[in-house]
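Homework help board

Subject: predicted structure for assignment chain

Our instructor gave us this sequence and asked us to write out the predicted structure in token form, then describe one feature. I got the tokens but I'm not sure how to describe them. Can anyone check?
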Amino acid sequence: MNKFSLSQRLFFRINAWPGRWKWLGLCMIFCACVLIFFVVGGSIVFTFFILPRADWYDWLGMTLIGFTAAIGTNYLLAYFLPQARPIIEFPLVKQLFNPLKTWKSFPSDHATTAFFFVTICARAGVVGIPLSVLLAMAIVISAARVYAGVHYPRDIVGGIVIGGGFAFFAPWLYRVFIELISWIL
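My token output:
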């Protein structure tokens, strides 16, 4: 009987690749660490080109409320369902860089952020090539985090579900927040 989960077995298969080609490792480090800024920035730029100026504040409010809720959910899950990073569970794993924190692995904040901003762009009406490019970058970021040895595939899937889910429900969260504020004031 195999004592490793499906996610761990897939991680070990992927983690056999780092070190084979230096150029690929450097590319994956860039994608895992820096590409997220292009997704967030690109989604903001694309959305502001699509939306009428009158809707900018609502979109910004939805984005801030939804993203705060998504990241807050990530940290609540990490606190109540602690999952160690691969390097903590298996010290011999190949890790291309040291993440800022090692206490939290599930769900991936990078996957949550990337898929939140891609989904919120789609909700705002961004379509076609811009949305496809943002989605491709989000997928590459997520794959690079596993390749770099800092996340299991389950962490990525959790981040995708939370990021996409909160972006999908961001308009509702925003309306509830506005109603709550107007009731308090």
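Reply (TA_rk): Your tokens look well-formed. For the description, you could write something like this. Residues 20-184 form one domain. That's the kind of observation they're looking for.
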